[in-house]
Amino acid sequence: MKTRTLGVLLALGAAVLAGCSSVPPTNVHQPMTARPAPRPDNVSSNGAIFNAATSRPLFEDRRARYVGDTLTISITENTSASTNSSSSANRASSISAAVPTVTGLPGKNFQGIGLSAETENDFAGKGASAAKNVFTGTITVTVIEVLENGNLLVSGEKQVAIGQGQEYIRLSGVVNPTFISATNTIASSRVADARVEYKESGYISEAQVMGWLARFFLTFLPF
Fold first, then answer.
1. How far apart are the first and last CA of the chain?
2. Whole-model pTM?
3. Tens of pLDDT along 71-82?
4. 195 Cβ neighbours under 8 A, 6+ residues apart
5. In the record, which residues are listed under signal peptide (predicted)?
6. Which backbone phi and psi does 167 adopt, to 5 degrees?
């Protein structure tokens, strides 16, 4: 019995440690790399230096266009948004009534009584919101698919280990080859369906996350 309990505790400890060191999930296109596909060799190998299966034209540039080619993307994401709103309402009303002279009728005790009432409602509301995000850097991605119209589906990841933590920079999207410069680079603003991620793993990043039990109570507590 003790052996079984110890085994369960060791399994739970291993699961916890695995969860602490796990790679953050991603939303970029998969896979994040691809090997170049072999090209058909229509020329039999006769010992010559020229090989039609692996050669490129002499005056062709080195821009990415095949599966497995690499492409450098300059990340220049700078977005800002702000909104302001205000509203106001005002309503006022008054009423007055008086009992005139009563002659020949009961109710003389109410004679000369006056009644007046006034109400006023005011409402004013204001709201403001602002957000700004800046992300700069470079990352080299791999062509994972060539679409039928010639566009390139690219995806890539960069891992940087600093101390006890690890940083993950990921990017994927669709690139139009005509936008690629002669140095085989392109700005992230020209990448369609771009998915840019910057995530961390380690105890420092985990300390910034609310615990699961606190999130559970936060979902239904009214205060």
1. 45
2. 0.60
3. 999 998 888 888
4. 27, 28, 29, 170, 171, 172, 173
5. 1-20
6. -105, 140
